[in-house]
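Students often ask why we bother encoding 3D structure as a string. The short answer is that it lets us treat folding as translation between two languages. Here is a chain of 308 residues written in the first language.
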Amino acid sequence: MDYTIKSTPEDFYVKEIIDLKTSEKGSYAYYWLKKTNLSTIQAADIISKKLNIQKKFINFAGTKDKVAVTEQAISIKGGAKKDYDFGDIKLNFIGYSDEPINLGTNSGNYFEIMLRNVEEIPKKKNWMINYFDDQRFSGKNVDVGRAIIKRDFKRAAGLLGDELKIEGNDFIGALRQVDKKIAKFYINAYQSYLWNKAVSLLFSGKRVKYSLGELTVPDKKPKPASFPIIGFGTDENKIKDILEEEKITTRDFVIRQIPELSSEGTEREVVVEVKDLKIEDLGNKTIKLSFSLPKGCYATMFVKQMMI
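And here it is in the second language, the structure alphabet:
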């Protein structure tokens, strides 16, 4: 089913669902960050420069879409009790805490999405296969992650190109110039690609396209289950075929040359519930979707699965 999504950033609105406990004093100031057409990482870069603070003092529960209007909580160590307006970035002071906001402390996200050029109104759906979507795989993320896991540090550094200063053949030293959070994201992107690939093989059904190929969506809701995100410590029984195809082992995710990039295996829910879905026909081939998803789930992927 054809449609257009994210015609403008205003067509895609996200608000974080998070339980914050604040007080009148504390080492960390909490703010509600509203950004337009910027990634969370880009917004953090701008905030650090505007406030003349190190980026490591800015924390958040998760990254939000770039081509969108998004609202999420952030913490700033030593932040002031005031609001800020930096154009496409606005910060509204919430309160103080002795703890920073950490990754994963949100419970989910609420979405309002405009779809344009829609030929047919989709039917309601209250579940999705929990695939990672294109935002996870932008640029060369997967290729860099794969190269690091395979110990091809020369290729990884080469893929990052002008971002690094490479002295002689010290490719490991070059990679360590990358911000730790960003470098780890390359590994996570590769893990996410492997998860998508493995889970897609579990089903028969319709196919949805994404930037790295196609994924299978069953016609009926599968029973709730989790599937391993490959890392060190993962039971290889479920993932032998993927490991053989990629020519890797789970032990490859222990990276002794760059220990901070080592990544342990975990589990991800295969099926997730979609809550409070509303479909509004606005006419002129335009519909508005509103719904909530658990943290770590991709609204764009849910839309793709609704529209096949």
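Translate back mentally: The longest helix spans residues 180-200. Keep this in mind for the problem set.
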